[in-house]
Design brief:
366 residues, 22% helix, 32% strand, single chain, 6-stranded antiparallel β-barrel, Elongation Factor Tu (Ef-tu), domain 3
Length: 366
């Protein structure tokens, strides 16, 4: 910890050596960019291999006879129905069906699951699971690991060269390839890639091998944001909040019809009511006209000047070659090519609703 209670990454010395520029994020001091700069880092990840230190995120193991039952209560998820090694995107919802956090849950054994939680919500998520676990025969353990993301079309080749074979692993599956390692084929860029949680000593040894490969480059938080935005992926705290439900966010694909029907999860009644009535707003992609980026919190208006919604994420998309954004608009306006206007410091910037993602996902699904 630093003097102002900001947490530092276990590998901070490596980032300093790599010339990182740091900034605060979710209570952590995080590498924002490296000397190559955000544009080069973004493009390198799309074309080769981007290496991200995501140790600010939390790995939580849930194990025991009632582990699947606990997770089915905590999340709109059929945890017992997950195949061995299968991962599933899901949520912690509140009683109003608002998204307290979005998560990935992986089944590692008959009664063992790994939960990956976002940094800003990690302590609350762990406390939430522990409180719920009181009524179940299972335990909740925070897993202390360095957590790395290796992303891009050559990620599998770079890992192979570094001595980590990924062969049979496909998108949204996870394994424990070595003692105290957790590896999933997943990520936050829209590219093929992996996330690996491992002990610090192992991480330092792996990084030495990876960084000896010219295809591999450290990538900071700024490019991570532009990559996920182009891929149409949400950031909790901006695009998802405890006031936004999965239907409004366009994420009902993550909740099966059987799970909706069973209604055993927290927030089930509220979500059912929202679905029956239909959400009043919808999350959409937004394509500003011209070169002026439209940032989070910008208000949106229709052609008559009436309020139409708000921007939740925005910036420049290097792969797209133009500004890109996401936000929420009134449901009747959530149609492709609808023209709206964003208020950017008093200037009306034309913005068109655009299908998500802005760049095609390139996951290895088989």
């Amino acid at each position: 910890m630093t003097g102002n209670d900001t947490r530092t990454l276990p590998l901070e010395d490596l980032h300093i050596k790599a010339g990182a520029r740091f900034g605060p994020f979710a209570g952590w001091s995080m590498p924002l960019t490296y000397p190559a700069g955000v544009m080069a880092e973004h493009v390198h990840t799309r074309e080769h291999v981007g290496l991200f230190d995501i140790s600010h995120m939390r790995l939580i193991e849930v194990s025991g006879p009632d582990a699947a039952t606990l997770l089915a209560r905590a999340c709109p998820l059929d945890a017992a129905g997950l195949a061995q090694h299968q991962s599933k995107y899901t949520f912690f919802l509140n009683e109003q069906a608002g998204i307290e956090d979005d998560l990935i849950v992986t089944r590692l054994g008959h009664d063992r699951f790994m939960v990956v939680a976002n940094a800003g919500n990690a302590e609350a998520d762990e406390a939430h699971l522990r409180a719920l676990a009181g009524g179940f025969d299972c335990k909740v353990d925070a897993v202390d690991r360095v957590f790395l993301a290796i992303q891009g079309p050559e990620a599998w080749a770079a890992l192979s060269r570094a001595g980590v074979e990924t062969g049979a692993l496909v998108f949204m599956h996870g394994v424990e390839p070595r003692d105290n390692w957790f590896m999933s084929r997943s990520g936050y860029t829209g590219e093929d890639g992996f996330e690996i949680g491992l002990p610090e000593a192992d991480a330092r040894a792996l990084l030495e091998r990876l960084l000896a490969d010219d295809r591999v480059m450290w990538i900071g938080l700024a490019a991570r944001d532009s990559l996920r935005l182009e891929a149409g992926l949400c950031l909790h705290g901006l695009d998802l909040t405890p006031q936004i439900d999965p239907a409004t966010a366009g994420l009902m694909w993550a909740i099966s019809k059987d799970v909706r029907a069973s209604g055993g999860f927290i927030g089930a009644e509220a979500l059912s009511a929202i679905l029956e009535k239909g959400p009043s707003e919808k999350r959409v992609g937004l394509k500003p006209q011209g070169r002026q980026p439209v940032r989070a919190a910008a208000s949106l208006f229709d052609e008559a000047g009436a309020p139409a919604g708000r921007v939740t994420s925005g910036g420049f998309g290097p792969t797209v070659g133009s500004p890109v954004a996401m936000g929420y608009v009134s449901a009747p306006l959530a149609k492709p090519e609808t023209r709206l206007f964003a208020d950017v410091r008093g200037t009306r910037v034309p913005v068109d609703i655009h299908p998500l993602p802005f760049t095609q996902h390139r996951y290895r699904k088989g």
